[in-house]
Amino acid sequence: MEAADIEEAVKKALVSRARNFVESVDLCINLKNVDLKQPKNRLNLEVTLPNSFREPKIGVFASGEIALKAKEAGADVIDPEELKRMDKKRARALVNRYDVFAADASLMPQIGRSLGTILGPRGKMPVPIPPGTDPTPILQRLKRIVNIKAKTATFWVNIGRKGMDPGAIAENAMAVIKAVESHLERGWQNIASIYLKTTMGHAVRVI
């Protein structure tokens, strides 16, 4: 599949009447000849997209220099002392408040003890920040990550927003498709079809 083919499909998908909100652009992948009843065949991927399109709410467990840099990068800093006062109600509220987390690597054992049972099942365990490291590049990367969890033969992945450059959306689509293909036992032979669509628009077939 060529990037130009995907970009052409993106352009067709973006042709829809204006709405009073910014529509998402989603990629739909349909699998075939994959037994998803078997846990080993299910997809659970983290893909870093080439182009950012969203501003997830990021919480960073840190103090000192890492905390200062995280604030400068636009993240919310969570005082590590809060971990000592954490009960189930506070833990759930904290986890629900943020889309993704990062943390000073030295705090990871404490976070695991206090929040692991809630963060783990939701796929929100923090990305470790090595001591003395500027967290800015890590936080920027978190804005470009999408998680793919496929337990059924059809699944959707958010890859952009209407108003983005079609080429940038196409690059994001290609990154997701390549990641999925590489984790399928028979690669392209396990992909039945791929579609693109905006939130309220018509689906456009890519393959």
Question: Mind explaining what this structure looks like?
Answer:
The structure is a single chain. The strands form three sheets. A four-stranded antiparallel β-sheet has the order 8-1-9-10, with helices on one face. Helix 1 (3-14) packs across helix 6 (166-182). Helices cover 32% and strands 26% of the residues. The chain has 207 residues and is an alpha/beta fold.
Q: Could you provide a short overview of the structure?
A:
The protein is built from 6 helices and 10 strands. By secondary structure, the chain is α/β, with parallel strands linked by helices.
Summarize the helices and strands and which ones pair or pack:
Layout: H1 3-14, E1 24-31, E2 43-48, E3 58-61, H2 64-72, E4 76-78, H3 88-97, E5 100-104, H4 108-119, E6 127-129, H5 136-142, E7 145-150, E8 154-161, H6 166-182, E9 191-198, E10 204-205
Parallel strand pairs: 3-4, 3-5, 5-6
Antiparallel strand pairs: 1-8, 1-9, 2-7, 9-10
Helix pairs in contact: 1-6
